[in-house]
Specification:
seven-stranded antiparallel beta sheet
């Protein structure tokens, strides 16, 4: 199958991108509005773009109506600050809830039942139970593409790392984190590691095995096919629709 990207509309392009660039790290971004209302939302167009100084990149689409700017972007633009929080398995349910499109005046920490922790440099609160959080100052933002997705670059000014996962020599005990990544419109628990070369028998077994579902759904279940899925990456309701 060869597909000409120029022949696709934005929704089909998005579906292909999120299903083929996997797994993706989740930037669980906390922000604060000018009025002091805390916001929390996950973004999987998230990566590192610089080392010294450390710079992170977030790409933010509009809300599901295709017009309204997301609160996270507005807050970062207006205040110049944000925090990224690492998503782990115990926090996955709350993270998913914060992907819903709440009114701007509502606090997503409260909606998701999450405790806030004070940051050191920025005014934005952190997710208290996140094992790793990064305080960021806005470096720059710009738009990309016909639909003007907003790309935000933030300079990390403070790392918050839980003591038990910080190892000698500045290493992180990643095997102890139970990090969660994004697969298309679903999530994946990172629970195995390897180095190469692998035994050929292990390659044969694992390369033909379907992913195991932790939620008990059928192996062919697709979150993208559900009615509450949106091409904005937002969750339109808290209930799955057939």
């Amino acid at each position: 199958m060869i597909i000409n990207a120029d022949d696709l509309d934005v929704e089909h392009t998005y579906k292909l991108l999120i299903a083929t660039i996997v797994p993706r790290a989740i930037g669980w971004v906390s922000t604060l509005s000018r009025d002091g209302v805390a916001n929390l939302a996950p973004f999987s167009f998230f990566t590192v773009v610089g080392r010294k100084p450390p710079v992170l990149s977030l790409t933010m689409q509009h809300r599901s109506d295709g017009v309204t700017l997301k609160d996270s972007f507005v807050n970062i633009r207006d205040t110049g600050e944000f925090v990224t929080n690492l998503v782990t398995l115990p926090l996955a349910g709350a993270m998913h809830k914060t992907a819903m499109e709440f009114p701007s005046e509502e606090d997503e920490f409260e909606k998701a039942g999450l405790e806030k922790a004070q940051s050191e440099v920025v005014r934005v609160p952190r997710v208290a139970l996140a094992p790793i959080s990064m305080e960021c100052k806005l470096e720059r933002y710009f738009t990309v593409g016909d639909y003007e997705d907003h790309v935000v670059w933030g300079r990390v000014v403070r790392f918050h790392i839980r003591d038990d996962v910080y190892l000698e020599g500045g290493r992180i005990d990643t095997a102890a984190l139970a990090p969660v990544g994004r697969l298309a419109a679903e999530y994946s628990l990172v629970n195995n590691v390897f180095t190469t070369p692998l035994d050929p028998q292990a390659i044969d077994v694992w390369s033909t095995r379907r992913m195991e579902r932790l939620d008990g759904k059928p192996s062919d279940f697709s979150a993208v096919a559900q009615k509450n899925w949106s091409a904005s990456g937002s969750v339109l309701s808290d209930q799955e629709a057939p």
